[in-house]
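The aim of this short unit is practical: by the end, you should be able to scan a pair of folded records and say something sensible about each. We start with the first protein, listed as its amino acid sequence and then its structure tokens.
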Amino acid sequence: MAEIRTPAAPREVGLYCPVADDWAGLRDIRLRSIANFPLGFFESFAAALALTETDWRERGARNTEPTSFQVVARTPGEQWVGTMAAFVSSGPPSYQPGELPVGGPARANLVGVWVDPTYRGRTGVAAQLLRAVGSWVIDEQHLDQVYLHVHESNHRAIRFYEKNGARPTGEYIADPRRSAERHVEMVLAPAR
């Protein structure tokens, strides 16, 4: 007999933009995200775990800079269950430490995307986060596209982005820790 699955109902979350004082929450959600899907992040779990409180506070402080944005989804009990971030670069960004950017026109880049497995699917969390990033890109940065890189084996994420209008650019970047694997570059027109 086939299993009958009831679609997940939208789950109540609030959106919040963390700052330096939220360093412990930033650390927790980053470690959870890397542990859950290490292929999706250029940073290793060990590297993230080795960061100090000062490092995490600096990451939180970036969210007050005009060309950087991060939003988290929080439950009514304030558990962080999802996150997305974006930043503006001049041309394609370099994700390699110490490597200089290529240069070019300003572009928005989506990074640090993760939703807790119990909040994925039709719960609406990822879509809420993406709309928040889209609003920031359009309203604050006055840009009409968002670029992102997604691991080629992350089919669920690729489908989510495609469902939201993303298309592959034809460009790839090599995974910095697994040179035989690639991250597909996609671009989408953000929505509010």
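Turning to the second protein, read its sequence before its tokens, just as you did above.
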Amino acid sequence: MPLLNTRKIYKPKSYYHVYNRGARRASIFSQPKDYWRFRSIARSALSRFSGIKILSFALMHNHYHFLIYQENIDDMTRFMKTITQRYVLFFNAKYKQSGRLFESCYKARLLEEDNDVDTCQKYILNNPVDEGYSNWQHSGLDI
């Protein structure tokens, strides 16, 4: 039986809670500049994939969350593949590592109920606060 949200349901014009964490729950951002690099990679990919909108995000030391709207059925797959591949190549080169950075492929929960998008956005934006970070600069509405 597949893990929750690993078998994804792709629909056009839909909202998703997308998330992943480091392999063995290890850090995926070792230095402050790593957060900025991930954000830069995501912004660059957004310019290539016009069917993707990030409504909110939170980058934590060993995981990330996105609230994503996808216009076309394959936008999110292409976007997430681009940003994770580029970030893993950067991270492994910088820290002279090889192999897996993330525990698995990203998870994506389709948000279908009327209040799911608002609830998910509150959850994502409160994630840093719930983990003890105040004034966390790597979460918000604009990646």
